[in-house]
């Protein structure tokens, strides 16, 4: 596909600038996080769909590893379809949404607030219904996003969650990782992951690829699932995002030399498991491209904070997907059958 630069490409390029305010100390995320630290919660519920749900997975790992609180993923249809609001008295309920306009997310937030939870909306539109339904609002401030495939709002959703937890848990190392993130995001714009997109292209040309796979663990799981979503959304390619631990179970049987794999690896206690999986799959002839560690085959900036690096990895993955979509003649800004705001009940 030829022509002017896509909206998706422009919005990916904006990521470092729009993420910078959230990474800076003393912002709204820090204020809310400090306020949360003064309270006690029995558990946390995170609510979001699609890319926002993937940001919720990242937030779950941050809360559970830094604060020791159990985090549950909300099922909005329990409220909207089954009419049974869950018992959340005293809990923290976090809704994550780019538009803040899906009726099910609004209804779930309202039900949580009425049920005695403290509700927090992490949204790009601070005037949205979801924001209005919540006690607290953490604006993403990513600016207007016109491409159907969300990129800069997704990155900011993950960054906002990390900034919130850094203040809530008084985690100085995480705060320092966030402070370094804008410059690293800027450098990530130059990372060329075309070796991975070439694997996708070869499988497509051979007409033998049944699916693509993305894998990682821990703090990387949310970004893993997000990249798989973007492959399906933008390249119209069935794609699955699995924990490296889960991939060793049933899904392993579906992998072959016709199923390209992308592995994300951050430098933490779970890294050896990802390294071992990459080596195992390669020895069996599965095409694997890896970011990070001794098995890494893709350009990388070197290890930073392990909770921040998977956020960083979204940038070159997004760029590779956008470029591959245009190479195939697809419009990355307008995938068929999709709209920018998805409203579900």
UniProtKB/TrEMBL annotation:
Record-level Gene Ontology MF annotations: carbohydrate derivative binding; glutamine-fructose-6-phosphate transaminase (isomerizing) activity; isomerase activity
Signal peptide start and end residues: none
EC top class, as a word: transferase
Coiled coil regions in record: none
Domain SIS: start-end pairs: 32-180, 201-345
Superkingdom: Bacteria
CDD domains (alphabetical): SIS_GlmS_GlmD_1 (cd05008), SIS_GlmS_GlmD_2 (cd05009)
Keyword Isomerase included in the entry's annotation: yes
Entry keyword set: Aminotransferase, Isomerase, Repeat, Transferase
Xref: PROSITE patterns: SIS
Record-level GO BP terms: carbohydrate derivative metabolic process
The protein's name: Sugar isomerase (SIS)
Organism: Methylobacterium nodulans (strain LMG 21967 / CNCM I-2342 / ORS 2060)
């Amino acid at each position: 596909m030829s022509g002017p630069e896509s909206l998706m490409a422009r919005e990916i390029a904006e990521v470092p600038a729009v993420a910078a305010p959230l990474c800076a100390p003393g912002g709204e995320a820090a204020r809310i996080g400090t306020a949360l630290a003064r309270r006690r919660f029995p558990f946390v519920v995170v609510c979001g769909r699609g890319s926002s749900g993937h940001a919720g997975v990242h937030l779950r790992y941050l809360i559970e590893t830094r604060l020791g609180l159990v985090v549950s993923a909300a099922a909005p249809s329990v409220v909207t379809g089954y009419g049974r609001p869950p018992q959340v008295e005293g809990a923290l309920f976090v809704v994550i949404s780019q538009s803040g306009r899906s009726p099910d997310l609004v209804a779930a937030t309202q039900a949580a607030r009425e049920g005695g939870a403290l509700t927090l909306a992490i949204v790009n539109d601070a005037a949205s219904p979801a924001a209005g339904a919540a006690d607290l609002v953490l604006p993403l401030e990513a600016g207007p996003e016109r491409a159907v495939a969300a990129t800069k709002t997704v990155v900011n959703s993950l960054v906002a969650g990390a900034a919130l937890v850094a203040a809530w848990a008084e985690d100085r190392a995480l705060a320092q990782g966030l402070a370094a993130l804008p410059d690293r995001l800027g450098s990530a714009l130059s990372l060329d992951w075309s070796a991975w997109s070439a694997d996708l292209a070869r499988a497509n040309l051979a007409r033998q690829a049944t699916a693509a796979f993305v894998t990682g663990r821990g703090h990387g799981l949310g970004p893993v699932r997000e990249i798989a979503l973007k492959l399906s959304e933008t390249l119209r390619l069935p794609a699955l995002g699995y924990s490296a631990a889960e991939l060793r179970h049933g899904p392993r049987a579906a992998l072959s030399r016709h199923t390209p794999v992308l592995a994300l690896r951050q430098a933490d206690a779970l890294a050896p498991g990802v390294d071992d999986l990459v080596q195992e799959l390669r020895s069996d002839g599965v095409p694997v491209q890896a970011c990070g560690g001794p098995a890494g085959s893709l350009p990388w900036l070197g290890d930073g904070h392990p909770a921040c690096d998977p956020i960083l990895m979204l940038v070159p993955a997004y760029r590779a997907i956008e470029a591959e979509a245009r190479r195939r003649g697809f419009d990355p800004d307008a995938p068929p059958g999709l709209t920018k705001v998805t409203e579900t009940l």
